[in-house]
């Protein structure tokens, strides 16, 4: 009986059972681990999206604050630059609702090759920003000029990307001098880069300025202007933005006219009449009908110029 081996029929089954159970245990662990990893990644993505929205909104507010120093009472143009750490799109939105309309800014920044998607708009009722529908880059140039019609209505602000080069060809001396004094890296009067957007005052190019008829033509749209302030606005804007912001300026002009009429009545009661009350009332109604730049006709411009001359010659100036 020595060295006799007994066969155990259950031992092989148990080994096979163990061999089968181990892969299922591992598979279950892998499934649970993958699910936990998915939840973690999902949570991180959601947090990053939330953070991106918050960063975009905060940056948009900072852009709005940056515009404040450009609002100046001086006639000369002022400029500054804005540098952001990431590729950024600054969306310019304008609405004509309410008394003064509304300027809104929305930012989208590039993260991991994709643009952040946010519907957070930062709004202002007292800013007039002229640019394309959106401007893209890391560095932006911002400059401003006062718009007077005939009194100062507001400071007009222009924003362009350092990526967009503008070449001004055959520009008048006042335009060339003013733009040269700005010192912006993306505006050229001579020695223009090959990839620059050409702005010509005679001939045919991407942006055409007609000084005689006072309009800027680009992408088959004509935007009419009255002075260099609006001319720059038309050059650096798309037509929808230009027309909307122009209407907002007219809305503000109408409200300011009412204040000057009231001021005229007050000083007249004190024995100093400007004799502009009736003219200002007419001007107020003309502001109201300027729904587009086409309505900046000679009648409106002449009325504005005459009032400006009369106020300048008056002993009781209103502005």
Describe the structure.
- By secondary structure, this protein is α/β, with parallel strands linked by helices.
- It has 2 domains: 179 residues, no CATH class; 69 residues, no CATH class.
- 43% of the residues lie in helices and 26% in strands.
- It is built from 6 helices and 13 strands.
- Strands 1, 2, 3, 4, 5, 6 and 7 form a 7-stranded mixed beta sheet that branches.
- The protein is globular, with a radius of gyration of 32 Å.
What would you say about this model in short?
The protein is 43% helix and 26% strand.
What's the topology here?
Blueprint: H1 9-67, E1 78-95, E2 102-111, E3 114-115, E4 122-124, E5 128-130, E6 134-148, E7 152-161, E8 166-169, H2 173-182, E9 187-188, E10 197-200, E11 207-210, E12 215-218, E13 221-224, H3 228-236, H4 239-269, H5 277-289, H6 298-313
Parallel strand pairs: 5-7, 8-9, 8-10, 10-11
Antiparallel strand pairs: 1-2, 1-6, 2-3, 2-4, 6-7, 11-12, 12-13
Helix pairs in contact: 4-5, 5-6
